[in-house]
Known about the structure:
mainly beta
Amino acid sequence: xxxxxxxxxxxxxxxxxxxxxxxxxxxxxxxxxxxxxxxxxxxxxxxxxxxxxxxxxxxxxxxxxxxxxxxxxxxxxxxxxxxxxxxxxxxxxxxxxxxxxxxxxxxxxxxxxxxxxxxxxxxxxxxxxxxxxxxxxxxxxxxxxxxxxxxxxxxxxxxxxxxxxxxxxxxxxxxxxxxxxxxxxxxxxxxxxxxxxxxxxxxxxxxxxxxxxxxxxxxxxxxxxxxxxxxxxxxxxxxxxxxxxxxxxxxxxxxxxxxxxxxxxxxxxxxxxxxxxxxxxxxxxxxxxxxxxxxxxxxxxxxxxxxxxxxxxxxxxxxxxxxxxxxxxxxxxxx
Length: 335
């Protein structure tokens, strides 16, 4: 059959001839410049595209299952919704590529360059990403369950809401990464660099953090004890991203000990501009709360119940059962 591969912008012909299929056409023209080629919806299952030049190519919804893309140049390529299950992408250049909602299950992406790639909602379950460069990659909501990310470079990556359950991140560089709301249950983070990472609302139950560098990380204390451990220890009620805790106040519903007295009226949302994040300062500036009614009774004549978004927790201070937040909502007066 006659096969024509055209430029996605100009519609000019890049390759034309009689071939069994598009796959056969590409394999017969190894080394052709396929920059800007329109290969949308193409059936390329098992295709040998090793070292192919596919810069800015349109591969949207293409079926590349099991394809050989070792060393391929896919800079800026459109791979939205593409099927890349089991594809071999070792050393491939995927800088700025759009892989949103792509299926990359069990794909081999070792040493691949994925800097600033868009991987929002991508399925990377079981993918091999060892030593991959994912600096600045957008992985928001991506499924990385069981993925191998050992020694991967994820500096500044957006991993908000990503599912990393059971992922192997040993030795990975996550400096400045955004891991808010990420699911890191049972993840291997031994010796990982998490300096300045944002782990607020992340679920770290069962995660191995031995040797991890957590300097400046948000949402986790310095003793490798997660917020979830604190919640479990005191049996704190949690609904979604909110927890319900207590505070001891005066009879007039004011803070009992504070340089700047705060009024805690039922139904009001309280906000502090500057809360003290120092791990070693007890009762520092901010809204200091108690996990239980019994503890709150030690600090006030009346007890109020408050609702706190986990993301607004500033710190759980050293050797103190209380914790500090920057925002809360007063729910009711307990007694």
